[in-house]
Design a protein that fits this description.
With 184 residues, the chain is of the alpha/beta class. It has one domain: Flavodoxin domain (Rossmann fold, 3-Layer(aba) Sandwich), CATH 3.40.50.360. Helix content is 38%, strand content 22%. It has a five-stranded parallel beta sheet, sandwiched between helices. Helix 2 links the parallel strand 3 and strand 4. It is globular and about 45 Å long. Flavin mononucleotide binds next to helix 2 and strand 6.
Length: 184
């Protein structure tokens, strides 16, 4: 039996067949904590995640840290400003109570991409969440339109980003998270 079949068998075992409808008895409750202000670039990505994960989107300022206990998967995302996530997200991470094995993922949009650069941009938030007992199950990033500072005089950079392809990647990322959450 190959990997795909094994996976399907596992999934089917977790489901109940009710008439013609297949009902998943263990839906995971997901939340997205988002701060996106420059061009709402990160919000476009969050909207794709929200659809796939059936998740609500809240601003960090709307979160009561205790309420996060209710969720089994939480995505934290913003644009990158000064080489890190927005202060509101970092401040929230500082206030979170200690969690045990809670799954989280990190996402961002930024002007400049690159594996090492994104890893560094995410490191502040990642380290704060990990120190609170969160398990980071994935990280997503893509380019976002940027008119910060002098760039506004030249039409900005990354016009049109996130684009349709970025949104497709976001959808694939969220689908993977969903499958892995159910598979584990
Ligand atoms: C004040 C400010 C600082 C920024 N700093 C960085 C940075 O350090 N590195 C980077 O790659 N992009 C930087 N950017 C670009 C943003 O990360 C990018 O435009 C992002 O998509 C904005 O997301 P938002 O529209 O969701 O707020 C900065 C933008 C602003 C407005």
């Amino acid at each position: 039996m190959n990997g795909i079949h094994l996976f399907k068998t596992k999934m089917v075992k977790k489901m109940e067949n009710k008439g013609n409808e297949i009902i998943d008895p263990l839906p995971m409750k997901s939340l997205l904590v988002l701060f996106s202000y420059h061009h709402n670039n990160t919000e476009k990505i969050a909207n794709v995640f929200a659809k796939v994960l059936n998740a609500q989107i809240k601003k960090p300022q709307q979160i009561n840290p205790e309420e996060l206990q209710e969720y089994s998967l939480i995505g934290f995302g913003s644009g990158i400003y000064g080489a890190k996530h927005h202060e509101y997200l970092l401040d929230l991470a500082d206030k979170l109570p200690q969690a045990t094995n809670k799954k989280a993922f990190i996402f961002s949009t930024s002007a400049i991409m690159g594996k090492a650069k994104v890893a560094k941009d995410h490191s502040n938030l990642r380290e704060k969440l990990e120190s609170k007992g969160y398990i980071i199950v994935g990280e997503f990033s893509c380019k976002g339109f940027n008119t910060n500072s002098f760039l506004k005089y030249f039409g900005g950079m990354n016009k049109g980003r996130p684009n349709a392809e970025d949104l497709e990647h976001a959808e694939e990322f969220a689908q993977n998270l969903k499958q892995n959450a159910h598979g584990s």
